[in-house]
Amino acid sequence: MLETSKNKFSVMEETIAKQALHKAYERETSALIAHVRDRSNAIAELEDLWYLHDLLSTKRYEIDGKYVYNFSTFVFDCATLVKEKWLYLDDLQGLKPEMLSKISALARM
Hints:
- The protein is mostly helical.
- The protein has helices at 11-41, 46-66, 74-83, 97-107.
- It has 4 helices and no strands.
- 15% of the residues are buried.
């Protein structure tokens, strides 16, 4: 499939997109750090430690793949992040209205 300029971001839109993903990443990782602090303070036995290990392994896998900027999946990635409440539509202001509408609609599904 040929890409046209209609399917690409302007420099400004790409900056907005990357900044929005960075904000969502910061929100999610900050929440994870706070959760891990709480859980680590509650470690009473070995099973608690293994739970924390498993949680961190899972979250690392999820987060490492989630925040890679890719134009072709950007709408879907953003919709997922909006649905998970790590990203807000306000973070995406400045993108084309059609794109914001698609992200909003997909996030409600």
